[in-house]
Amino acid sequence: METWRIVATSAFLVGGLVMVLVGMAQARDRKGARPGDVRRAALIGLVVVAVVAVLIAYLLPSVVAWGVVGATALAVVFITMWD
Predict the structure, then answer these.
(1) pTM of the model
(2) Neighbours of 42 (CB within 10 A)
(3) What pLDDT, on a 0 to 100 scale, did the predictor assign at position 32?
(4) C-alpha dihedral sign at 71, 72, 73, 78
(5) Nearest-CA neighbor of 16 among 78, 75, 81, 80?
(6) Where are the transmembrane segments (predicted)?
(7) Three-state SS across 14-60?
(8) Total structural domains within the chain
(9) Res 34: pLDDT
(10) Tens place of pLDDT for every residue, the chain, 83 residues?
(11) What's the rounded Cα separation, in Å, for the pair 80 and 65?
(12) Which residue range(s) make up the domain with 48?
């Protein structure tokens, strides 16, 4: 496996896990939310992150892979800095 794939996958995983945590927090804060809603948000988020990470690691071309990593980084910065 090429080095850029390892770096891109690792960078996406860090950003993706932050996004999953944000999604879990939003599910918890939703009015009328049940405890199962947080677990469901975590499960769906982790599955999506895992699928995209595998695609970056093995299938996607470099431009698309780095585009996904960049979009994830922008989303993390935008969502975590929003006040």
Answers:
(1) 0.91
(2) 15
(3) 83
(4) positive
(5) 75
(6) 6-26, 38-58, 64-82
(7) HHHHHHHHHHHHHHHHCCCCCHHHHHHHHHHHHHHHHHHHHHHHHCC
(8) 1
(9) 87
(10) 899 999 999 999 999 999 999 999 999 998 888 889 999 999 999 999 999 999 999 999 999 999 999 999 999 999 989 85
(11) 23
(12) 3-81
Q: What is the pLDDT of residue 31?
A: 84
Q: How far is residue 46 from each of residues 14, 18, 67, 69, 83, measured CA to CA in Å?
A: 12, 11, 20, 16, 25
Length of the chain: 83
Q: Which DSSP letter does residue 6 get?
A: H
- H or E stretch at 83: none
Structure tokens at 68: 């996904």
